[in-house]
Amino acid sequence: MGAAAALAGCRSDEEPHGEAPTPSALPTPVYVPFEGVEPDLPGSREGVQPGFFSYPANPQQFSDGPPGDGGAVSLFTQGKQLMAKNRNKRWQQLDADLNVVTEWSTSTNSGYLAKLQVLSASGDFPDITQLIPMPQMPGVLDKYFTDLTPYLAGEEITKYPALAALPPSAWSPGTINGRIYGVAQPRTIAGRILSFRGDVLDQARIDADSVHSGEDFLDLCREVTDAERGVHAFGADPVAWIVPAVAEMMGAPNVWEERDGEFHSAYASDVYPEAVDVVRRMWDEGLIRPDSYSNPGSSGWWKAGNTALFLQEFSGWSRAGADPDIQQVGAIVLPKWDGGGAAPIHLSEGAYYGFCALRQADEARTDQLLRILNHFAAPFGTAEYVRLAWGVEGHNFTYDGTDPVASGASEEALPVAYLGSTSASILYSDDQDLVTAQHDHQSQTIPNGITNPALGLYSDADFNSGPRAYRPFKAGLDDIIQGRRTMADYASLLSAWQSTVGEKAKAEYETAFAGAQA
Q: What's the pTM?
C-alpha cells in the first residue's frame, strides 16, 4: 500500500501456464474464471487479458436475482457530482437491479483524501467507502471496517461468483498486511510500454522489430531523432519515465526486492545508477527534447509527431489507438540490456489503488453488501455488465450489431467502475488489429514479469515521508542528467534518501511481511 503511495473476470486458457503473479503476503481467494462467454483471444491465469472484437451476442443474466432487501445502502466514492436520482434513469435502474435504495455521495480525486480524513475523525463512514492510502491505514481499517478475510479467502469467495472471477492480482490494493479489507477495480498488470508512431518510423525507414538489446534501443533513439526538424526520440520527464525503463531492461528490482524476508530498494541496486548514466548520455546526445524539463508535455509532443517514442502505462495504448491524429500506434517489447530476449517487465499492481471497504456490521449485513459488490463486478459479456456500463437501453444506449453504443440521454455515468468493475480487465475494441497487437504484447511480456513484493503491505514511513524524501533524490538525479552534478554524487543522494525514509520503510515492510506470513 505504501509502495503505491510513493510512486484503471473472464474465461482463461484451457491449460494455463501458471497463476497470475501475486505478492506472497496476500491471502489469495481462489480464482474461478467466468466461462459464460468465449473471447476471440483467450486470456491466461498469468494475467494476459482476453480479447474481444465485439460485445458477446445475447448477453445473459449472471445473477439469480437482486442482492438487496429493499433497504438503504450508503456509498462514498471518487467521481463527479451526480444528477439527482429523480431525473437520472441510470441511477433508478441500478436501484431496481439491486433492490436497494442507494444513497451515493462523491468527491473529485483532488479533494478525496481530505474528505476521507474528515470521515475518519468522526467515524461516520457509509456502508461502502472507497478508500485510498491514508495515514495510519491499518489502524483505520481495524477500527471502522470489516475484515473480509473470513468471507473471501480461499474457497469462501465462491459464494460471490463475480468476485471469484476477478483476476488474482486485483486483490493487492484491498489487502493490507495479510488481511483482506476490500474490493478494487481490476486492471492489467502489463506495466509500462514503449509506444511508437508507425508513421514516424516508416518515414525514417526504421523497423520497430529491430530492438533486441540496449544498444539497439539507443540506435533506435538516434535514428528517429532529427533535431533540425524538431523531432526527438523522447519528450518525457527523464527520471520519472526513461530511467525506470532502462533500469527494467538492466534487470533492476520492481521498486523493492525481497530476499529471505529482507527488503532491498531498487535505488540501491547496482544497475540503477547505471540506468541514470545511460539516460545522462542520451540527454547529452540530444535524444531527449531539451525542453522536457522546462515545458513538460510528452503526450502532446508525441501526438504532434515531434517525438517518435512515448513511455506510458499500458492502458494508454487504447486511447492512443483511438486518436485519429496518432497513426499506426504500436508498442516495442523492451529487451534485456545485454540482449538475449525480452526483459522481465515490472508488473503493475493489477488494480486501481483505491478499494471499496465495508463498514463494520453483523454477518448478515456484511453478506448483503458483498453480494452488492458481487453485482458491481458482473463479468464482461453479461446483461448486468451492459446496464452498469451503458445504462438503460433506448434511453442511454442502443445496439450497433451486438455492441452497445451510447446515444440519447447523457446522464453522467455512475462511478461504479471503482466497485470492482471488470471494464479494464479485458481487451475490447472493434479494431481487431489493436486488440490482437495488445494481446500479443501481453503474451510476450507478462509471463516472465516481476511483481513488487511490497504490494499488500503498508509502511507508514513510505506513505508519510516517501513523497517528501523522493523530491530531493529526484532533483539530484535531474541535476546529474543535465550535467550540473556528476555520477559520483549518486551515492550521497542515495544515502540521504535511505536515512530519511528508505531504511525506515525497509524495516516496516520487513515487519509487515513477516506478520503477513505468520
A: 0.90
> What CATH number matches the domain at 192-346, 3.40.50.1820, 3.40.190.10, 2.30.30.60, 3.40.50.300?
3.40.190.10
What residue type is 410 in one-letter code?
A: S
Give me the CATH code for the 2-189+350-448 domain, please.
3.40.190.10
3-state secondary structure of 58: coil
In order of 88, 109, 110, 182, the CA distances from 114 in angstroms are: 28, 10, 9, 20
Contact 462/5 with Cβ under 8 angstroms? Answer: yes
For the chain, what is the mean pLDDT?
A: 90
On whether the CB atoms of residues 504 and 461 are closer than 8 A, the answer is yes
Alpha-carbon gap, residue 288 to 284, rounded angstroms = 9
Instruction: List beta partners, residue 43.
Output: 12
**Phi–psi pair at 295, nearest 5 degrees:** -140, 65
Q: Where are the alpha helices (DSSP H) in 52-108?
A: 89-98
User: Cα(161)–Cα(459) distance, rounded to whole angstroms?
Assistant: 32
Give CA 444 to chain center in angstroms. Answer: 19
CA 445 to chain centre: 16
Q: DSSP letter at 241?
A: I
The whole-angstrom distance between residue 425's C-alpha and the CA centroid of its chain comes to 10
Task: Identify whether the C-beta of residue 189 lies closer than 8 Å to the C-beta of residue 20.
Answer: yes
Predicted confidence (pLDDT) per residue in 119-174, tens digit: 999 999 999 999 998 888 999 999 999 999 999 999 999 999 999 999 999 999 99
Q: Is 334 exposed, middle or buried (0-12, 13-18, 19+ CB in 10 A)?
A: buried
202: Cβ contacts below 8 Å, ≥ 6 apart:
328
Contacts of 146 by beta carbon, 8 Å cutoff, 6+ apart: 181, 357, 358, 359, 360, 361, 366
Polymer length in residues for the chain: 518
Crossing angle of helices 89-98 and 363-376, in 10° steps, is: 130
- Dihedral sign from CA coordinates of 320, 110, 351, 64: negative
pLDDT tens digits along 291-340: 998 876 667 888 888 898 999 999 899 887 777 777 778 999 999 999 99
Eight-class DSSP state of 240: I
Alpha-carbon distance values, 61 to 58, 337, 380, 384 (Å): 10, 49, 11, 6
Element (H, E) at 272: helix 271-285
Q: Are the folds of 2-189+350-448 and 192-346 the same?
A: yes
Tell me which residue of 165, 156, 208, 216 sits closest to 37, measured CA to CA. 165
Question: Which amino acid makes up residue 364?
Answer: A
Can you give the residue ranges of every domain in the chain? 2-189+350-448, 192-346
